[in-house]
């Protein structure tokens, strides 16, 4: 039997997609990474609709959070990265740094961020496993 059939779902409508989040997962102590992610979407989504009551509740999202999400999601991420590279190039030109050095620094920063993401992911997995 599908979990959607067993549980009362909360539907979270975002700009580009819809996620079905079981309402019981919000208080479940044995949360999986997928359920935690789904509950975060439900908690911070722009529109939340409860199927049983058919009411709509608008959540206020701070502009800073919304802009960060826009920069890192979908097509806007490509444009944001391009703008950042251009800005870095201009700063490098002003300081007299070669383009190769800028790329090398960017690669080093990327490696550091990947290590950080792996570490945080491992910590989250440990927390989920402990619960």
Task: Explain what you see.
Residues 29-50 have a biased composition (Polar residues). Residues 29-74 are annotated as: Disordered. Residues 51-70 have a biased composition (Basic and acidic residues). This protein is α+β, with helices and mostly antiparallel strands. The chain folds into two domains: 3-58, no CATH class; 63-124. Helix content is 60%, strand content 14%. Strands 2-1-3-4 form a four-stranded antiparallel sheet, covered by helices on one side.
Poorly predicted regions are 1-22, 44-58
Count of helices?
Answer: 5
Q: Let me know the number of strands.
A: 4
Number of domains: 2
How would you classify the quaternary structure? single chain
Strand order of the largest sheet: 2-1-3-4
What integer is the average pLDDT? 64
Question: Considering DSSP H and I runs of 4 or more, what fraction of the residues is helical?
Answer: 55-70%
Order of helices and strands: HEEHEEHHH
**Approximate strand percentage:** 5-15%
**Structural shape:** flat
Q: State the distance separating the first and last CA atoms.
A: 25 Å
Q: Could you give a short account of the major beta sheet? A: 4 strands, antiparallel
Which structural class matches the secondary elements? Answer: alpha+beta
**Rg calculated over all Cα atoms:** 20 Å
């Amino acid at each position: 039997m599908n979990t959607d059939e067993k549980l009362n779902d909360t539907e979270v409508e975002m700009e580009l997609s819809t996620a079905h989040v079981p309402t019981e997962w919000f208080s479940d102590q044995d949360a999986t990474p997928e359920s935690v992610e789904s509950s975060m979407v439900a908690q911070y989504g722009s529109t939340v609709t409860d199927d049983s009551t058919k009411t709509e509740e608008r959540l206020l999202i701070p502009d800073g959070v919304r802009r960060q999400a826009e920069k890192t999601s979908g097509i806007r991420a490509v444009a944001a990265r391009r703008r950042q590279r251009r800005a870095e190039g201009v700063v490098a030109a002003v300081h007299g740094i070669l383009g190769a050095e800028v790329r090398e620094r960017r690669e080093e920063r990327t490696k550091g961020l990947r290590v950080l993401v792996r570490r945080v992911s491992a910590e989250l997995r440990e927390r989920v496993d402990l619960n």
